[in-house]
Amino acid sequence: MSPLSLVWFRTDLRLADNPALHAAVSRGERVLPVYIDAPEEEAPWPPGGASRWWLHHSLGALAASLAELGSPLILRSGPSLPTLQALLRETGADAVFWNRRYEPHVIERDTRIKTALRECVPHVETFNASLLHEPWTIANQSGKPFQVFTPFWRHALAKTALPEPLPAPASLRPPASAPSSLPLAALELEPKIPWHHGLAEAWQPGEAAAAERLETFLLTAEAAYPSDRDRPDLKGTSRLSPHLHFGEIGPRQVWHAVRRHAERTRTGLRAEVWRNSRFLTEIGWREFSHHLLYHFPHTAGEPLREAFAAFPWKKDPALLRAWQRGLTGYPIVDAGMRELWHTGWMHNRVRMIAASFLVKDLLLSWREGAAWFWDTLVDADLAQNTLGWQWSAGCGADAAPYFRIFNPVTQGEKFDPLGAYVRRWCPELARLPDAWLHKPWAAPADLLAHAGIVLGQTYPRPVVDHAAARKAALAALASIKE
């Protein structure tokens, strides 16, 4: 009987451009796809509620795609190493392939697993499926990791051209007798969370949906992306982030799709034009976040800038709850937090506004925000969540200076000028004229009454005064400088 290869799926839930799957198929032998649910091994950052909802549906999509190729997806529940060893004994497999992950605690686990498995079988190989470049392959002239994005991305762009994405296999040869598999429901990935109905309305997980979303973006929004990407009232972004996180599409596929689109539309035949597109620069920020977390693994819980370890953050459960539920009294912040609660996603510009409000207006720690986003975002990614929150708090790499404090009123007026975004997510304000929509507390009493708004009842008064909060934030910054 011909040998058998196990392919251990993780955050690479796709068939196309999947190096581990491709390597197994290339051996010309039988292939057994496996997924192991072991969230306890990802502590202190096990998947949050929204992530587990996405994972449930993504695994369902992957299993259906594999079934079309003639193969089952074997589902097991961890721990991972004993589970893999048991599968090797059950099947007689002589090879295990998987694609690498880059979270610090997962790297440690995977290293132990690789060492142990190499004592059991002759072929244990890992591959890069989720990044354009491995984090350890990019360094500055001193051989050290970058801490500023622009030189990092310039260096990455100068590296060898990326190969074309690998094709999906046309078929798979499963073992004659597949081992037992848990039903998907037995993994209990679908959490009992208040917002799961909104997630189902907003998203379609899976490889096919990811490819369709990318194609739609390129055809309808990519050209205007530089101007529209900061407008939450417009469909100006790709919304690919959860698909990228779960590996339903890979960055190399995105890279070459942008190249092909530029060639078709004749807007960027020269490589230096399309390679420097604003959209691919955002893929670069994703790469940068993984570069940072790999080289500075402590930053998932501690600031990169050591001075911020002494920052006098407040502890105020009531203020934190108001922020989490979109009841701060600042409409652009509240709209964003309600969008997050309902859909598991928030527009990136609004993420920055909401994050700035938490850490600078409320003086609540960025860790509180990171934990909330981790549980509620369908695209919760440890590297990007860490970079984003430390950027907002001014304590990370290439961060916005702490003294740069977003004014939630002017930010709302600038990026939601017609008020469509606020009116969608804060419908109690819908009848308020544009001039007052982002500062309802300042509106004349007769306009509030006409709009059916009773401040403190139908919509909250501001939980803080922004001008006073700004002074308090600057004083807190001065305290750690001293």
Structure description:
- With 482 residues, this protein is mainly α.
- It folds into three domains: 4-129, Rossmann fold; 130-162 and 207-295, Serine Threonine Protein Phosphatase 5, Tetratricopeptide repeat, CATH 1.25.40; 306-481, DNA Cyclobutane Dipyrimidine Photolyase, subunit A, domain 3 (Orthogonal Bundle).
- The chain is 47% helix and 6% strand.
- The protein has helices at residues 19-26, 49-68, 80-91, 104-117, 149-157, 196-202, 207-220, 225-228, 241-245, 251-265, 271-274, 278-295, 317-324, 331-343, 348-361, 366-376, 382-393, 408-415, 420-425, 434-437, 445-450, 466-481; strands at residues 4-9, 30-37, 74-77, 95-99, 123-127.
- Strands 3-2-1-4-5 form a five-stranded parallel beta sheet, sandwiched between helices.
- It is globular and about 80 Å long.
- The N and C termini lie far apart (72 Å).
Average pLDDT across residues?
94
CATH homolog superfamily of the largest domain: DNA Cyclobutane Dipyrimidine Photolyase, subunit A, domain 3
Number of domains: 3
- Rounded to an integer in angstroms, the radius of gyration calculated over CA atoms is 24 Å
Q: State the helix count.
A: 22
**Low-pLDDT segments, ≥5 res:** none
